[in-house]
Amino acid sequence: MVVSENTAVSTVQAPTEQTPERNSAFRDGLNILLGSKVAVVGLCLVGFWLIVAVFADNCLFTPTCWFAGDDYEPTPWLARYSPYKQFSGENLAGPSAKHWLGTDKLGRDLWARLAQGSRIILTVAPLATLIALIIGGGMGLVAGYYGGMIDEVTMRVLDGVMAFPHILLYMVIIAAVGPSATNIVLAITIAGAPGIARLVRSLTLDIKTRDYVAAAQTRGEHPAYIMLMEILPNARGPIIIDAMLRIGYSVFAIGTLGYLGLGLPPPSPDWGSIVSSGRRLIMMGHIWDSLWACLAIAMLVVGLNLLADGIAEETQRYR
Amino acid sequence: MRYAEEGLHPMVQKARESLYEGRVSRREFIRLACLLGTSYGAARFLAACGAPTATTGGGAAAEEIVRGGTLRCASQVPAVDHPMRFSWIYDANVFRHIFEYLNWYDEQGVTHPYLLESYVPNDDLTVWTLNLKQNVTWSNGDALEAEHVKWSIGQWLDPDVGSSTLGLWEGFLTSDGVEVVDAHTIKMNMDAPILAVAEQLTHYAAPILHPTFDGDCTSGNNPGTGYMTLDEYIEGEKARIVKRDDYWDMGADGKPLPYLDAMEWYSHGDDQAAGVAMLKSGQVESIYDVNIDNFLAIKDDANLRVIKTPTSSTRVGRFRVDLDPWTDNRVRMAVKKCQDRQKILDNSYFGQGDIGFDTHAAPSHPEFAPMDDIPYDPEGAKALLEEAGMSDLSFDIAVGTGWSDIVAFAETLQEDAKAAGISVTLDTMPNSAYWDVWTEAAVGITTWANRPLAVMVLPLAYIADSEGNPVPWNESRWVDDEFSALLKTAQGTFDLEARRAIMKDIQRIQSERGSVFIPFFKPVFRAYTNNVRGASGHPQNYNTEWREAWIEPSSE
Q1: Is B98:B109 a contact under the CB 8 Å cutoff?
Q2: Cβ distance B26 to B47 under 8 Å?
Q3: 3-class DSSP assignment, residue A232
Q4: How far apart are CA B528 and CA B305, in angstroms?
Q5: Which three-class secondary structure state does DSSP give residue B118?
Q6: Which of A8, A314, B290, B458, CA to CA, is 20 to 30 A from B168?
Q7: Has residue A30 been placed in a domain?
């Protein structure tokens, strides 16, 4: 489900009372999640890959691994093998006890690559979304709050960016700066920020007419304070839901870039690259590479969407 | 029949002795003899004389052949205008049946006279006399004359036409050097000795055109000497050529070639998988230049015949020897030792192809001197690096992601080099971007097409020009005096055995201190349905084999 601007505005909540207890806010959040069956299913799907990503090997728990690069060979846990180990003579094998999901063209274990790939996807996608959120959200807040020329100029520029089809925009950016994790984050940020800015601006336009904003203004609060402390927290519901969906889109974007050959350079096991290199093998009867990677992408994206749906549903009920 | 032995080049006589003593193979003998102007039939006769092996014969017995039918092919149908400006081999696929060539390079890698009756070099290879066949006629009824050929050669060499053929003759031949002796004889007066004339006359952008050529081969108004005439050509869609009734050469059944009534090409664009689907569903009988992925998809299909032809086309990993640390041969050798050649071949080309030895001379080259296996030796690599003070070597390698086998090659090297403490990073880019940097990147893997002879490819990329600068395609900047001197000798050595003796040293030098790592040479594939007969593959991927192809009618 895609949250349109209208429903987004309607879900804006009344100002919460200033409860300093974080615990209750956390409990509220948990209630929202667990209260919806849809959200629980989503959580399971996403949670599976989160667990796989964290426990694929011992790297996250071994400080020497963090900055060691190639010098440290992590011990595989859930992944069972290194995603780069080439089993000579076992190229293009189907699923077996030794290789649960089979092997790729170079004899590498597909499950190990998927597991390692989940770590890349679950780092790059949320990170790109977060940065897009910060930049787009900031622009939307400023444009919506000040209005006038600032609003006009900002939104027209962002409209200009949005006029480009996303895939074209990714290709232009990646082709200009070269494929790497950082640049993929950059491309997704640039493509995603305008949409977020639009959403946040419309929320801001609505919220800034509320009495508590007028009260803060008469108190003489700094505009930055009003935007960040009064408006933003009250717009969080739709923003969180939008962010969930956007993480899903980012997963797709990484997959798409990998498929176009603009993803992370080989031998990176990111899912898009696996689909892309596996595509060539389908015709010769080896469907496993593409199949598993597509299933993994679908699982994660569906999970995130269900999560967003569940949250939307529950927050609406809470009103 | 021209089996008289007088008039043979002295080297042919010598090669024949080698053949009898078992020092050269029959194929090599035929090849050398043809190179020096003996006709293919005569060469086969000479080779067969006294030798116990029967000639296998080319083509089917006359009674088997069935005339008629259309051979359809899934291929590209590219935008083209002037046949001398063809820039891809497949540009010539349709038109090579209409506009013919002076010589023909066959599926075995042997060059034969085609429109020529024979070609005769003088003893120092500076004057080549070309004798035309007497009976060749154009589709407009004219007879082929020496003036037509002179005009065509003039077009090859005219910078305004812009033919790649000009590059082949640059420094050897100008249009002033082309001399008409009589109606069927032409002399090429060279500025320098040249051995590869016969093979250069097969170049896909060097057809013989009628002087009335209107500049656009798709117009359908241009006479050709070929057995087909153009019916329609729609770029990106289809092309159709139909049989000419009065062709000058006869088939095995005594009637004029070709056996087929028509040939058609259907465009699959850049997506060959679509062509495979067309082939499998019976919409076409053939697919041109099957790539390795699609080869594996169809190799076990009982309705198809997939033909594999070994070539010297390859993937050349190369170091820029003018940049650190590649100036030090020990560092280059260390990386070369990290190649597990069989594994690289398995991973990148599914085990289809010949193992390479870090020299650009291929096992399929006639003058190739057999070499010992080079083992995978990470320990040796490590020791070399320590000696050079370069332990912890790490470097980037430029690869185009469109070549999936190159990516697999680089990934395998990357993994196997870890054991020697070498860290390799893949610098990936689209193929087009790779062609922007192919002579510039410090380390990269470049695709190289097939060349018939080792002495034709080595001078392109591993020597310096007369001013001492590396030649334009010397992507690694490697110039070695001993290598260059030996290569020069080899280029002027016609005796195959003697040339191979020199090649032994050339190959050793390039393998031991050269600038390239070449773990394999790749074959080319062509696929046909089972009812297509008389067709084969071609090492250059020239679409020449349809001239005598025919289609067996279905038994239903």
Answers
A1: no
A2: yes
A3: helix
A4: 5
A5: strand
A6: B290
A7: no
Asked whether residue B240 carries a pLDDT value surpassing 50, the answer given is yes
Classify residue A299: in a domain, yes or no: yes
A36 touches chain B (CB under 8 A): no
Question: Residue A310 falls within a domain, yes or no?
Answer: yes
Q: How far is A283 from chain B (nearest CA, A)?
A: 5
Overall average pLDDT of the B395-400 stretch: 93
Chain B residues whose CB is inside 8 A of the A284 CB are 293-294, 296-297
The residue of chain A with its CA nearest to that of B280 is A283
pLDDT in tens, A238-264: 898 899 889 988 888 888 887 777 788
Which candidate, B475, B508, B513, places its Cα nearest to that of B368?
Answer: B508
Write out pLDDT tens, residues B53-74: 333 334 455 667 889 899 999 9
Q: What angle do CA B122, B123, B129 make, to 5 degrees?
A: 10
Q: Kindly list the residues from chain B whose CB atom is less than 8 angstroms away from the CB atom of residue A70.
A: 418, 423
Tens digit of each residue's pLDDT (9 = 90 or more) over A13-53: 545 555 555 567 778 777 777 878 888 999 999 999 999 99
Least Cα distance to B553 among B139, B222, B190, B66 occurs for B66
Q: Is B418 on the interface with A (CB under 8 A)?
A: yes
> What percent of chain B stands above pLDDT 70?
88
Report in angstroms the alpha-carbon separations of B321 from B314, B328, B388. 20, 8, 15
Give the C-alpha separation, A29 to A16, whole Å: 14
**CB-based contact, B139 to chain A, within 8 Å:** no
What does the pLDDT look like over B197-238, one tens digit per residue?
888 899 888 999 999 999 899 988 899 999 999 999 999 999
Mutate which of B287, B342, B345, B347 to disrupt the A interface (most A C-beta within 10 Å)? B347
Evaluate if residue B290 carries a pLDDT over 90: no
How far away is chain B from the Cα of A230, in angstroms, using its nearest Cα?
47
- CB contacts under 8 A, B 152-211 vs A, are none
Of the given ranges (B8-22, B406-420, B515-529), which has the lowest mean pLDDT? B8-22
Q: What is the pTM for the complete model shown?
A: 0.76
pLDDT at B514: 94
Provide the domain count of chain A.
Answer: 1
pLDDT value at residue B33:
57
Quote the domain boundaries for residue A284: 38-54+109-318
Interchain pair B401, A267: CB under 8 A: no
Residue A250 lies in a domain: yes
Residues of B in contact with A281 (CB under 8 A): 293
Q: For an interface test with B, give the residue of A84, A86, A270, A290 to mutate (most B CBs within 10 A).
A: A86
CA pair distance B321, B327, nearest whole angstrom:
5
In chain A, the residue whose alpha carbon lies closest to the alpha carbon of B276 is: A283
- Residues A168-209 have pLDDT tens digits of 898 888 888 877 888 989 999 999 999 999 999 999 999 999
Of B350, B428, B430, the CB nearest to A266: B428
The domain that holds A199 is classified in CATH as 1.10.3720.10
Tokens of B258: 């070709």
B340 contacts on A by Cβ (under 8 Å): 88
- Got the DSSP string for B458-508? HHHHSSB-TTSSBPTT-TT----HHHHHHHHHHHT---HHHHHHHHHHHHH
ipTM rounded to 2 decimals: 0.77
